[in-house]
Amino acid sequence: MRRLLRAVPGRPRRRSEAGQVTAFVVVLMTALLAAAGLVLDAGLALSTKAGAVDLAEAAARAGANEIDLGAYRSTHVLRLDPVRARTTAQAWLARAGTSGEVTATASAVTVTVHATHRTQLLQLIGVRELSMSATATAVAVRGVSTVDQQS
Fold first, then answer.
1. What is the pLDDT of residue 15?
2. Which residues face 112 on adjacent strands?
3. Residue 7, in any domain of the structure
């Protein structure tokens, strides 16, 4: 049976503690979800970044294959055809289903790929997507530049 508490003059009233645990649990669960979201979405964002790096490197290598054969045959100097290198790298990115910036000189091809990752759990705290970019540069080389030591 419930007892009715009446205020006694000169004695402080007791305050009910009902609801304090609920507020603590709400705050704790919010913090745990934010931490889980950070772990999950940061891991997925790193995976997206690694994919962007792979795409940039592959496109740069494809562009670096476009050697100016006329100059190489006449002067024996290895240099790239910048227009063909840029076109080849952009075509490689298009076939891969992405886009990016490509710059090419007579000595190197540089590709920058931009990627976004739509968050899973961080959406709960207002973070909808994470943006990142990856840049890779490739140069044309002649022959073998290092010797692999086989055991």
1. 63
2. 101, 135
3. no
Q: Give me the sign of the Cα torsion angle 99, 89, 139, 53.
A: positive
- Position 121, amino acid: L
- Please tell me the distance from the alpha carbon of residue 82 to that of residue 12, in angstroms, as a whole number: 86
10 contact partners, CB below 8 Å, separation of at least 6? none
Read off the pLDDT of residues 35-61 as tens digits, 9 standing for 90 and up.
Answer: 888 889 889 999 999 999 999 999 999
Give the model's pLDDT for residue 1. 46
Flag whether 8 is in a domain.
Answer: no
- Helix, strand, or coil (residue 100): strand
Please state whether beta strands 129-139 and 108-118 pair in parallel, antiparallel, or not at all (unpaired). Answer: antiparallel
Look at residue 111 and tell me if it is in a domain: yes
- Is residue 2 situated within a structural domain? no
Domain extent for 113: 23-139
